[in-house]
Amino acid sequence: MSDPDGHDKSIDDPAFDPDDVSIVQDDDKTSADYYFDSYSHFGIHEEMLKDVVRTKTYQNVIYQNKFLFKNKVVLDVGAGTGILSLFCAKAGAEHVYAVECSQMADMAKEIVEANGYSNVITVLKGKVEEIELPVSKVDIIISEWMGYFLLFENMLNTVLYARDKWLVEDGVVLPDKTSLYLTAIEDAEYKDDKIEFWNNVYGFDMSCIKKQALMEPLVDTVDQNQIVTNCQLLKTMDISKMAPGDASFSAPFKLVAERDDYIHALVAYFDVSFTKCHKLTGFSTGPRSRATHWKQTVLYLDDVLTICEGETLVGNMTVAQNKKNPRDVDIMLKYSLNGRRCVVSRIQHYKMR
Amino acid sequence: MASNDPQYQESRRIELMDHEFGVEKELEEESEDEDVEGWDDWEAENDDVDEGESSDTDFLCFFCHSRYGSCDALFDHCSLSHHFDFRGIRTELGLDFYGAFKLINYVRSQVAEHRCWNCGFACQSNQDLQNHLHETVNIEAINALLDDERYLKPFMKDDSLLYNFGEDEEGEDDYAAPIDKEELIRDLKSYEDISIDDDHTDTCDKSGMKVLSASKDKNGVSSVEHAGSTGGKLKETHLRASFPTVIAKEIKNVNDNYFGAYSSFGIHREMISDKVRTDAYRQVILKNPSLLKNAVVMDVGCGTGILSLFAARAGASRVIAIEASEKMAAVATQIAMDNGLWQSKIPNEGFNQSTGVIEVVQGMVEELDKSLQVQPQSVDVLVSEWMGYCLLYESMLSSVLFARDRWLKPGGAILPDTATIFVAGFGRGGTSLPFWENVYGFNMSCIGKELVGDAAQTPIVDIVDNHDIVTSSAVLQVLQRNASRVVYIPLHTKNALVTNNPYLPGANCHCVRKTDR
């Protein structure tokens, strides 16, 4: 109610000038920036920080293995708010270089100062592929680079680049092991909601969209009760040793039904391990584990499979980074079922954008 | 066409048409002779034409009475005997399907008057005309002559040439094939250095922005080809000083990215599933027959076309659905077709019988003058779901106002016509301030401060819990249908808000809109 300084101008105020654009400066963001510089948008960081499975695991890895960090130089790839760097500094690292390419880097700098770690942590704003490090080698590379479906956003390549450029011989990469898994689920209700939805929209046939909608993998939480088959390991990667090209792969799978049911979709998820810890530490993003912000990746099948207990769904999954846009992932899925009640064979393509 | 001598019948009809055409345009509608079939009859009878039947695929030459079994043969003949190279002219003038269609009708109409289609010289008879015909001169002048709606109507009854000349070319009207975005991007890349990204809400990839800033540093002249997110219609090569070019590039890039973002189906599903939103539009459209029945409707930013579908169902006589995103325009067309509601652009197009009323036009509403076969101020109802976050985010309102001023009849209806922005203050609990103060034992409160301080410039879209609202609500701005301009107003809260909590970080809700100058 009160406005002692008279700062609030109302539109009735004669001093008010509708053409006065001084409030908005030239370097302010437009909606274009808002749409595209979203890593600078704090909400994402809040979500990731609030993901207890993720953040607490990293915290445990670092605080419970101080021997790894004593007198060591650390490189934090894609530092964001700088939380991992702060953990490392507190655990006794000699020095930490935190690299972040978005506007968040400015915030990270302020945070480091506010917490009194300016002499231990150096924040570098820029792309890993373009910055200069004040040192020629680091002892440890730490990063939280995993995207949906593990490989979406393809930050893995950035970590490998940093590893090849700056990591000492026998240096430590955290995390160093990651695996991708596949399983099959019954998902009639949700598929109805997301895909069959287009068949009848307020009485109109919009099914032509269905085909395209099917090609977009869905990031969502799967209930473990929906799982119909075993979970198959598709691929394991050793980040301390692998080559960038290894992130694209083709792997066969054999999923065996554990009960009579229908299969509407395949589900992909990953786990991550830090093998250099005193005690093996890690976490999984699977439907049987505690929820994370990664959820799971759902790939709806064109067909609805009727599968009997003991029958096998075989196939092959090929994953590659999109040629035009390396941050996007192209998935090709071949599957076939030769069962008592259902015989099907198909190839489907998916694009994660 | 039942006659013993088709040729005689044909030439007689042409002579009679000649009589009509010899007079001023106003008299075109009068049918002076009962025997002469007017346009209405033609439209009705064309239903009998079956594209597939071989008896219809018999093509009459433009100039003489020769008939040919194939378009190619006909065109070869005209090229050889009458100095009329249809295919060459089409290529030279860059005529699309409709342009070529008009060319055929134009030439036929000129021949009917014994007039040279090229130089306009009037001959005494058909034979004289054939003797007169010469090598093409000054072909560009023809373009202006072709720019006439009347040539969209078949001049000659049952002119099978009109439905077959385009046979060799693949699916010009085939909206079913989704636009190959990658190919489009590849093509565009070859014109400009700018990489056109879409759907990049989750990445740190700033390559688009980076290239822009690089070009800003260039001095002197740079060349730009404005390849079409507006369907390739703007193809010009300019040599200009770099600064205005860069601005244009930036605007185009923003537009590409903006429209690109609507290409993904998730957002459309979200909007359609928003029952509050979609049900409201549905109610308004379906429950107001007095407004919609037989109306000409324009849907600005149609997306999947759901509002247009409602309008068609409500009895509109014509629905013009405008969508700038290429992919969505193709999808909207397919959906209209699948629901039997699509209206092809050419009346009575033989091979695509449709009884629908919806026509989908791809492009920005501000740039549609060339392609739209609509008289200014002739639309009865303008419908649009244009509202963005905080109402005015995305600035689509200006497009709607443009459409209103250009296409809407005086007294026409706009749906919706009133929009109100409210403001209320929310307390600390509605912010993430408490969270940032202690993150795993670290003080990240500078982020919280940044968030709050920046709230004026980067509004956050979120759901605020009712119990976090700590003041009354006040009306901030009401937009009526006759808003004359969209104005830059820093909307400070008036004194009307009453608070029970002295801490009000959320009260400074700034919405800024652009002034039209």
TrEMBL record, chain A:
* Molecular function via GO: histone methyltransferase activity; protein-arginine N-methyltransferase activity
Q: Which domain of life is it from?
A: Eukaryota
Annotated keywords? Methyltransferase, Nucleus, S-adenosyl-L-methionine, Transferase
List cellular component terms (GO).
Answer: nucleus
Q: Which InterPro entries match?
A: Arg_MeTrfase, PRMT_dom
Q: Where in the cell is it found?
A: Nucleus
**Residue ranges under compositional bias (Basic and acidic residues)?**
1-12
Query: Which residue range or ranges hold the Protein arginine N-methyltransferase domain?
Result: 176-339
UniProt entry tagged with the keyword Methyltransferase: yes
Renumbered to this chain, region (Disordered) spans 1-23
Name of this chain's protein? Protein arginine N-methyltransferase domain-containing protein
Supply the source organism for this entry.
Carya illinoinensis (Pecan)
